[in-house]
């Protein structure tokens, strides 16, 4: 029969393939001869036996389902021409692909949600930290205002001259507030030293108090170094001091040699070696003070010459040179503070612990009396002010009359 001949030719074409795949390839690759379809002269081809063979091959495929077929990729496309035979592999692949894509979409969504939650959590933390920072800044500002008001009432701010003028810089105002806080700490340290000396503490306990005061004394030089960079004129003029302290100001502070003179008259039971060390320190301090004073005088004279000279080309260049000379003032203030600091540390090395405590107590009480004198001077009654002004005016008139008489007596 014609059908058996076609199947035999397809089987000879490929022995390793199944029957249905061989049959279809035989139909596609080897076109039948002209008498294949109409061998008996009939006008149509009978597909009955071909369909029966395909059904039998499907039964065999189900029995051998555990074995992976070699034509899994191509068979699905070929057998789609026959809808009566459902292909299991062809139907499950799209479902599996959809499931996989769904899992990927869920993972991306979960990751995005986790990122959003983390970003929201960080945003809440930043907001909370910002609110806490604002609250702490408000509290600190309130404390600074209270300290400023207390310093003004005690005559400590601006030397008791009242509120700062319009030309004061922010750095100078900050230094004034820090200096007021430093004075409060200084009073506390003085009280601790006085109590320790009166209680006759041991040398070890007293050494802790003295070392604490040394660290406190070094703090004022650090504050002045920062203020000198912001406004050196504020330190040189001494508006942060009390009026009585400004009478003895030298390069924004005290003269170390004058401080040593006060200590020598107040200290008792000094050995000969200690006296020699103190006098040597006083002599070296005086030499350093003279050198710094001469340097400052030369700088001032140079500044006068620069400003007094007529501008040759451009006046701005002249101002630039003058500003450069003014910036050297910071160096003089820093060297003077270093001399003061080294003098205090050297005194600590020369003296014993108990003598050093007595020394620092004398220094603190001396400057405390100067500030108290300033407060009394500023708070004296108005009648005293009027009488002082009248006596001052009378004295000035007498001096003018005497000078005029002496002037005309020469003729």
Automatic annotation (TrEMBL):
GO function terms (MF aspect): DNA-binding transcription factor activity; transcription cis-regulatory region binding
Subcellular localization(s) per the UniProt record: Nucleus
Single GO cellular component term: nucleus
GO BP annotation list: DNA-templated transcription
Residues covered by the DOG1 domain: 172-380
Record domain BZIP: where: 106-150
Pfam families named among the record's database cross-references: bZIP_1, DOG1
InterPro entries cross-referenced by the UniProt entry: bZIP, bZIP_sf, TGA_domain
Keyword Transcription attributed: yes
Keywords associated with the record: Activator, Coiled coil, DNA-binding, Nucleus, Transcription, Transcription regulation
Coiled coil regions in record: 127-154
SUPFAM superfamilies: Leucine zipper domain
PANTHER family: TRANSCRIPTION FACTOR TGA9
Entry similarity comment: Belongs to the bZIP family.
Protein name: Uncharacterized protein
Organism: Thlaspi arvense
């Amino acid at each position: 029969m014609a059908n058996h001949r076609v199947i035999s030719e397809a089987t000879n074409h490929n022995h390793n393939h199944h029957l249905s795949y061989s049959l279809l390839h035989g139909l596609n690759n080897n076109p039948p001869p002209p008498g294949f379809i109409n061998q008996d002269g009939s006008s149509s081809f009978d597909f009955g036996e071909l369909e029966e063979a395909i059904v039998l091959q499907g039964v065999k495929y189900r029995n051998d389902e555990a074995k992976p077929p070699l034509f899994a990729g191509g068979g699905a496309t070929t057998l789609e021409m026959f809808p009566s035979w459902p292909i299991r592999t062809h139907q499950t692949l799209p479902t599996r692909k959809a499931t996989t894509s769904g899992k990927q979409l869920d993972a991306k969504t979960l990751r995005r949600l986790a990122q959003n939650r983390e970003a929201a959590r960080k945003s809440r933390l930043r907001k909370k930290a910002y609110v806490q920072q604002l609250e702490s800044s408000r509290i600190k500002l309130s404390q600074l205002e209270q300290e400023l008001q207390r310093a003004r009432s005690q005559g400590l701010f601006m030397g008791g001259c009242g509120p700062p003028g319009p030309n004061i810089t922010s750095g100078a105002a900050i230094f004034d507030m820090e200096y007021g806080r430093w004075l409060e700490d200084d009073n506390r340290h003085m009280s601790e030293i006085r109590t320790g000396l009166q209680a006759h503490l041991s040398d070890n306990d007293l050494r802790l108090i003295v070392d604490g005061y040394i660290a406190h004394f070094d703090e004022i030089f650090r504050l002045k170094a920062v203020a000198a960079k912001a406004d050196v004129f504020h330190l040189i003029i001494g508006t942060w001091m009390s009026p009585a302290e400004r009478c003895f100001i030298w390069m924004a502070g005290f003269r170390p040699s004058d401080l040593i003179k006060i200590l020598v008259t107040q200290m008792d039971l000094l050995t000969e070696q200690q006296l020699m060390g103190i006098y040597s320190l006083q002599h070296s301090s005086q030499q350093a003070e003279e050198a710094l004073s001469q340097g400052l005088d030369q700088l001032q004279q140079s500044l006068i010459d620069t400003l007094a000279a007529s501008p040759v080309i451009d006046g701005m260049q002249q101002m630039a040179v003058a500003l450069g000379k003014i910036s050297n003032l910071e160096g003089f203030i820093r060297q003077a503070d270093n001399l003061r600091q080294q003098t205090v540390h050297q005194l600590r090395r020369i003296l014993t612990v108990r003598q050093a405590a007595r020394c620092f107590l004398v220094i603190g009480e001396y400057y405390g009396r100067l500030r108290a004198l300033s407060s009394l001077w500023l708070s004296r009654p108005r009648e005293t002010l009027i009488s002082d002004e009248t006596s001052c005016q009378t004295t000035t008139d007498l001096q003018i009359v005497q000078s005029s008489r002496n002037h005309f007596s020469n003729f």
